Amino acid sequence: MPRIQIGAKQAARPNDWRQAVLDQLRSGKVLPIISNRFHDDLLLGGHDQLVRDYAEHYRIPHESGGDLPAAAQYKTVMREVAGAGDFIRREYLEFVKSRLMDLAEAEAKKSNDNNLAGLLEDEESQFDEHDFSTLAANLGYPRFDVPEKDPLLILAGFDLPVYLTTSFHGMLEQALRRAGKQPRSMVCCWHPRITTDDGTDNDPLAADYRPSVQEPLVCHLHGLDSCPESLVLSEDDHLSFLVNVSRDRHLIPNRLRQALNDSSLLLLGYDLAAWDFRTLLYSLIKNRSYRLQSVCVLQLQPSQEEQAYLNRYMDEVDFKVFWGDTTEYLQQLYAGLRG
C-alpha cells in the first residue's frame, strides 16, 4: 500500500455520505427511526387521508384538525371530563381498526377473496378483544411482497440489533418475524400510569437480554396499541412526553441511548413540521453525545428555496436529506449491500 502524502488534499466524492451509511449498515451500526406516517401510508390508505377522515367523522373543525395531534387535542378539550385523554386514545384506536376492516372488506369484494371474507367474519366477532396489531396480523396485513420491493421486509432483512419507531402499531415486528427473527417490543413509559407487563418472561429490559440481529429490540417511543394509555397522540401528549423524557433520563433505557450515540440514524417517513418529528428531535437527536453521518428521507416536493432551507436545517444535526420515495431509498440500500 503506498504511503499517504501528508498535507495532500483529497477531493471529496459527491456520494461519500451515501457510502458512509452503507458502510455503517454493513457493520450493524445503523438505527432506523420509523414514523407512524410510514405505517399509515402502507396499511391504512395514506396518513393524510386517514387524518382527514378522522376529523370529518368526529366533526372536528377544519382549523382544528389539520394534523392528528391537533385533531386529538380538540377532541380532548371539548370532552370536558377528567381522563378524557385516555378515552380519546382508545377511540382513535377503534377508529383505525374500523378503517382497516373497511379496507379489507373492499378488497375482499373486489378480488372475490373468500378466504379474506372468512377472516373478516371471524374478526368481526372478536373486534373488541383484539388490538389493531393483532387484527392486522389475523387478516394477513400488511401483505408482504418480495423482499426487494417491500420496505418493511427490506428493513427487517438488515442485520441490525435495535429499531426505533414512533408508530403505534406492530407492523415492523411482524416483518421481523417473517424474516426469521424474534423481536422484543419495548414501550416508553413517558408517564407513570403506563404499565406494559404482559405476564411473560420476554422482558426487553431484563438484565440478561442484549439486543442482537436474531433477537432485535423494537422501541415504540410514542406508544403501542396494546397499551392505549401509552400513545403520544394529542399536542399536550407531545409536550408532556418532551418534558418528562428531558427531565428523567431513565425513561430512555441505556441500550437505546447507546444506539443513538454510536449509530448512523435513518429517519423514515417524517414531516419536519410535524409534532412527532419535533419531539423526537429535541428529546433524543439533538442531545446525542457523538454524531455519525445520518440520513433523513423526505418525500416532499418543495420549491428550491424550501429545499435549501430543509437541507440547512438538517445539516445542523448532521443529517443528509434524500429527496425521494422511502421505498426507493431502502431499495437503494438493499441493492448497495447486495452489490
Can you describe this structure?
Strand 5, helix 12 and strand 6 form a beta-alpha-beta unit. The protein has a 7-stranded parallel beta sheet, with helices on both faces. Helix 8 packs across helix 9. 39% of the residues are buried. It is an alpha/beta fold and 339 residues long. 48% of the residues lie in helices and 9% in strands.
Can you summarize this structure?
By secondary structure, the chain is α/β, with parallel strands linked by helices. Helices cover 48% and strands 9% of the residues.
General shape? globular
Number of strands: 7
How many strands, which pairing sense, and closed or not: the largest β-sheet? 7 strands, parallel
- If you average the pLDDT, what whole number results? 88
The radius of gyration over CA amounts to 21 Å
Oligomer: single chain
Helical fraction equals: 40-55%
> How far do the termini sit from each other?
25 Å
Please give the order of strands in the largest beta sheet: 3-4-2-1-5-6-7
Query: Which structural class do the helices and strands define?
Result: alpha/beta
Which percent band covers the strand fraction?
Answer: 5-15%
Put simply, the count of helices is 14
Q: Would you list the SSEs in sequence order as H and E?
A: HEHHHHHHHEHEEHHEHEHEH
Task: Pick out the low-confidence regions.
Answer: 6-14
